[in-house]
């Protein structure tokens, strides 16, 4: 029997009892989690349910979402009409620029709240918000530089989702310091104003029960070496996220500018380490793939968005064999589901390599569990918060699977994860806790009705413009 003592003694403890739970050492039965101030203070298996809230189902550590652009949830489904030329990421980007032309702070908050409620229902208990919408419709800063960051924080508070806020440093429109275009006017800051925005954003996230802050130099095409260094030399703490090597054109433009590929240039010129998160990284050489792993950085994969945008396929098996860390995110939020992102990643590897069970590397290893545990560890590292396991000192973020679901009722252990990932998906999730507090019950966010009504009003107004 596993018994552990509480690490907090300052407040009344709450206890949650689960018949089955995935602990760091594997599956356990009759597990009691003692929660104090939102943190797991004690864990006991083969325990009694006396004095605890009995929660039906299978407890998993909550999945971190390591990459989201919340506002893009409002344009999901609006870009699936072919244009006069062959559509690509770059034509999609022009539509995105037009979408943001009239978004107000109230719109941003309503869309974010809706996206975050869906994330919780879909098995994500925290979000790393890659937040690059900073200014008003004309491109002028708000009186409060962090006006829109504050709206992201408010959406986090309302829904209960954990938050890593990543204010985006967006300085230029292309490699070598190309001047910004009109559609980017709401993103652009020079280093001095960005650092002021960052400091104000630290204040903006204080109402969130458990939050962290980092920075996000948008991409190598959106900064210069000089402005990137200005920011990196000033900010010494927190995660650093960057889009990189997402598109072939981006790689070609970087080669034309520097003679090196994007990841190659970054590894040669910047101290890439365990605090870094490289988003997408879909176009790498074998040397770049192993170089990221050796640096200890996380690769942030958004398989549903990468498929939607025609980005490409990340080289999974080589990266995993090199000891690389990865997590998953929802990026443009076209479909918000943790099992769906994991499944899409595995299926992309199967299609690319023409094999089955590509992420699992050992004979007899469960692919569902391998995917889940890789994404837990990478997502927690990328979030810069103490999350990602049902263990002492970790945030009590818990996803509960419905073991009476037809696809789960006849299996146990790792098969629960296999069935959820590859068959049942989001409907297998019955309840979700963040910081030990229930936010989803019977698959539905507790505040869904009000959040949905506000979202409806926003998208109807935007559709009428």
What does this structure look like?
- Its cofactor is Zn(2+).
- Residues 20-53 form the Formimidoylglutamate deiminase N-terminal domain.
- This is Formimidoylglutamate deiminase.
- By secondary structure, this protein is an alpha/beta fold.
- The protein has two domains: 14-61 and 388-448, Urease, subunit C, domain 1; 63-383, TIM Barrel (Alpha-Beta Barrel), CATH 3.20.20.140.
- The protein contains 14 helices and 17 strands.
- The protein has helices at 89-99, 105-121, 147-159, 191-204, 225-232, 248-258, 262-269, 286-295, 303-308, 316-321, 338-353, 367-383, 414-424, 448-464, and strands spanning 14-23, 26-36, 39-44, 53-61, 63-68, 124-131, 162-169, 211-213, 216-217, 240-244, 276-280, 298-301, 325-328, 398-401, 429-434, 437-441, 444-445.
- Strand 2 (26-36) and strand 3 form a beta hairpin.
- Helix 2 (105-121) packs across helix 14 (448-464) and helix 12 packs across helix 13.
- The chain is globular and about 65 Å long.
- The chain starts with 13 loop residues before the first strand and ends with a helix.
């Amino acid at each position: 029997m596993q018994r552990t003592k509480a690490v907090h003694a300052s407040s009344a403890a709450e206890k949650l009892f689960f018949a089955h739970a995935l602990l760091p050492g594997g599956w356990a039965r009759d597990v009691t989690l003692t929660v104090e101030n939102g943190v797991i203070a004690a864990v006991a298996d083969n325990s009694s349910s006396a004095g605890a809230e009995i929660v039906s189902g299978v407890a998993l550590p909550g999945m971190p979402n390591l990459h989201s652009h919340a506002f893009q949830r409002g344009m999901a489904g609006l870009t699936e009409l072919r244009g006069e030329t062959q559509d690509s990421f770059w034509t999609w980007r022009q539509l995105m620029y037009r979408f943001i032309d009239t978004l107000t702070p109230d719109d941003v908050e309503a869309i974010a709240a809706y996206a975050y409620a869906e994330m919780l229902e879909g098995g994500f208990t925290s979000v790393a918000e890659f937040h690059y919408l900073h200014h008003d419709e004309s491109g002028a800063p708000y009186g409060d530089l962090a006006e829109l960051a504050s709206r992201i924080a408010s959406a986090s508070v309302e829904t209960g989702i954990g938050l890593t806020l990543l204010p985006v440093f967006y300085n230029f429109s292309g490699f070598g310091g190309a001047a910004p275009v009109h559609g980017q006017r709401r993103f652009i800051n020079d280093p001095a104003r960005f650092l002021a925005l960052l400091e104000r954003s630290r204040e903006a996230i204080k109402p969130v029960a458990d939050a962290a802050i980092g920075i996000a130099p948008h991409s190598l095409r959106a900064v210069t070496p000089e402005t990137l260094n200005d920011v990196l030399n000033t900010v010494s703490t927190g995660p650093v996220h960057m889009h990189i090597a997402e598109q072939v054109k981006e790689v070609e433009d970087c080669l034309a500018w520097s003679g090196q590929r994007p990841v190659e240039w970054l590894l040669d010129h910047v101290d890439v380490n365990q605090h870094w998160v490289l988003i997408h990284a879909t176009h790498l050489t074998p040397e770049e793939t192993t170089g990221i792993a050796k640096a200890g950085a996380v690769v942030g994969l958004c398989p549903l968005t990468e498929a939607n945008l025609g980005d490409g396929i990340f080289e999974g098996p080589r990266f995993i064999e090199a000891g690389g860390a990865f997590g998953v995110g929802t990026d443009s939020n076209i479909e918000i589901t943790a099992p769906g992102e994991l499944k899409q990643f595995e299926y992309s590897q199967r299609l690319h390599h023409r094999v089955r069970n590509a992420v699992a590397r050992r004979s007899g290893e469960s692919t569902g569990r391998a995917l889940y545990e890789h994404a837990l560890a990478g997502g927690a590292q990328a979030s810069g918060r103490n999350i990602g396991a049902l263990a002492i000192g970790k945030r009590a973020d818990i996803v509960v699977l419905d073991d009476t679901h037809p696809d789960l009722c006849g299996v146990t252990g790792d098969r629960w994860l296999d069935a959820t990932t590859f068959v049942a998906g989001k409907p297998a999730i019955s309840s979700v806790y963040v910081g030990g507090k229930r936010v989803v019950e019977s698959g539905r966010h507790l505040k869904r009705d009000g959040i949905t009504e506000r979202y409806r009003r926003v998208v109807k107004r935007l559709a009428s413009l």
